[in-house]
């Protein structure tokens, strides 16, 4: 992968600077961590997270490929996504435990309860084979896991998180609906330290390396890995190469020129409300609908300028659906709940908010918050 064409397509990119052992983090636009902190370096953790997420992405790609090649009847079968979901979690959990055996806590979406039920053995065998094949493809680990090892690795994700200590946060496949459709999905991995997101990695196996909606892109290669560490900027590299580029959220100041992302699934986000908000902002472009945290990745490199996630009443947001995405957009971006409050990752598995989540650059955020407030008021009491 040549870094030069990426430089042309994403003008804000620069070469990856050498890591520093200790960082002074300047006042930050990110709501994921405190404004001024003398930050630890998390370089070792970031390297391990990138490796774990890349291996999991390869596992998921393999499963999605065979799913898309299968016949119509097996396309109605949800088991491929189940297998990939558990396989991804087992793999990430195993790799992180190998790298950090002394201190390990993982908050993850899945557990092995259903896999331990009668009749699940065939599924468990498929998952175990996939995990072992993936590990064999990487020279670092010369092990063969038993089915019990795989179930234990999955169950290591039972931590509750919180405001003390360090916790890894994982969504093994975010966007299961997109995965089944042959569309976008992400493997999202982040690290919390004392309740703050300090690093995040987003593997997006189907996201083009060039900006989406770019008709003149030099090629249509897909597979991006986004990553960020507190105080260290945001970066993107192809999933199959290490040529890293620095990325930046769009600095657009005129909302009329902005385009916005939202969920592909209308059941996950109120498209009528986002449309009203976009109208108030004067946004001209139609919404760009994509599954999963891939939206955060695309936003982090300036493909669009706004992301609105406005779930229907009663939905509780989970930390693994936003932790990695939240830090990946910090280079120029701000993440808030729809009332304008920063997100709090220190309360356990859930983000305590009921208004939705909005993401944009610092200039547009106050205008977006105002448009959201007015739209919510309008929706609550129509004229
Ligand atoms: N009813 C719902 N409302 C909002 N989000 C949902 C709902 N059901 C599932 N999700 C989550 O939305 C995320 C995908 O968001 P998007 O639609 O923007 O791609 C997934 O993490 C998915 O959870 P899960 O990971 O458990 O499937
Ligand atoms: Mg999810």
Describe the model.
By secondary structure, this protein is an alpha+beta fold. Helices cover 34% and strands 19% of the residues. It contains eleven helices and 14 strands. The chain has helices at residues 3-9, 43-69, 72-75, 79-99, 121-136, 147-155, 176-181, 271-281, 294-300, 323-328, 365-380; strands at 23-25, 37-39, 106-108, 166-174, 186-193, 196-208, 222-229, 234-238, 245-247, 260-262, 288-289, 306-309, 333-337, 357-361. The strands form three sheets. Strands 3-4-5-6-7-8-9 form a seven-stranded mixed sheet, sandwiched between helices. Strand 10, helix 8 (271-281) and strand 11 form a beta-alpha-beta unit. It starts with a helix and ends with a helix.
């Amino acid at each position: 992968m040549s870094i030069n064409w990426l430089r042309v397509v994403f003008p804000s990119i620069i070469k990856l600077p050498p890591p520093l052992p200790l960082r002074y983090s300047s006042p930050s636009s990110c709501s994921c961590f405190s404004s001024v902190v003398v930050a630890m370096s998390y370089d070792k953790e970031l390297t391990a997270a990138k490796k774990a997420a890349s291996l999991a992405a390869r596992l998921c790609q393999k499963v999605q490929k065979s799913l898309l090649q299968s016949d119509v009847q097996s396309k109605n079968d949800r088991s491929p996504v189940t297998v990939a979901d558990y396989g991804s979690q087992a793999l990430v959990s195993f790799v992180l435990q190998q790298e950090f055996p002394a201190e390990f806590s993982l908050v993850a979406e899945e557990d092995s309860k259903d896999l331990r039920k009668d009749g699940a053995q065939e599924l468990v065998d498929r998952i175990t084979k996939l995990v072992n094949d993936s590990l064999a493809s990487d020279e670092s680990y010369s092990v063969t896991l038993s089915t019990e090892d795989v179930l234990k690795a999955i169950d290591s994700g039972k931590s509750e998180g919180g405001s003390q200590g360090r916790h890894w946060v994982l969504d093994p496949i975010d966007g299961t609906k997109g995965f089944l459709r042959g569309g976008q999905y992400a493997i999202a991995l982040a690290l919390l330290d004392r309740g703050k997101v300090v690093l995040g990695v987003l593997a997006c196996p189907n996201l083009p390396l060039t900006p989406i909606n770019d008709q003149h892109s030099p090629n249509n290669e897909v597979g991006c890995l986004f990553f960020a560490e507190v105080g260290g900027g945001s970066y993107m590299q192809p999933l199959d190469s290490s040529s890293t580029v620095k990325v930046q959220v769009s600095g657009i100041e005129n909302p009329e020129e902005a385009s916005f992302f939202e969920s592909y699934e209308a059941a996950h986000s109120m498209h009528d409300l986002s449309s009203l908000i976009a109208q108030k902002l004067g946004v001209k472009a139609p919404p760009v609908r994509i599954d999963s945290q891939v939206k955060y990745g695309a936003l982090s490199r300036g493909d669009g300028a706004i992301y609105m996630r406005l779930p229907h009443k009663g939905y509780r947001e989970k930390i693994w659906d936003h932790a990695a995405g939240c830090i990946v957009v910090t280079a120029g971006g701000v993440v808030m709940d729809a009332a304008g409050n920063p997100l709090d990752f220190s309360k356990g598995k859930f983000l305590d908010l009921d208004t939705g989540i909005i993401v944009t650059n610092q200039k547009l955020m106050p205008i977006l918050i105002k448009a959201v407030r007015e739209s919510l008021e309008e929706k609550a009491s129509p004229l």
